[in-house]
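hey m, so remember when u said the C-alpha cells were messed up on ur end? i reran from scratch. heres the input so u can diff it against urs
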Amino acid sequence: VELVESGGGLVQPGGSLRLSCAASGDLASIHDMSWYRQFPGKHRAMVARVSEANTVHYADSVGDRFTISRDDNKTTVTLQMDNLRPEDTAVYYCHVFAGVDVYWGRGTQVTVAS
C-alpha cells in the first residue's frame, strides 16, 4: 500500500485546511485509516481515526475542530481542519492498517501562523 498526502501549507490562526491522503495498492486489505501528527522533537501522535465501519475517534486536543472521512473504495482519507491554532503546527502523516501491516505516508507540513 502506498500513501500520498496533500493539502498542507501555511494558514492564519482561525483558518482552515483540508488534508487528503490517496491510497493505492492492495486497497482491499485496508481497514483503519488515520491521521497522525508530529511536533519537533516529539513522537507521532494520533489525531483522528476512522474504522472500516466508519467509527471515528479524535484526540482530545482537536475536539470538534477536525473531521476525518473516508471514501467507500478506501482510496482516500481526508482531514478537514477548522479553527486552526498555532499549536496545531506539525507534520501530518497518513496512516493505515492493511491486514497485519502498517503503512505511513511521507507527511505534509501544516503551519499555523499570523
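this time it looks ok to me. The longest strand covers residues 30-38. if urs says something different then somethings off w ur setup not the seq
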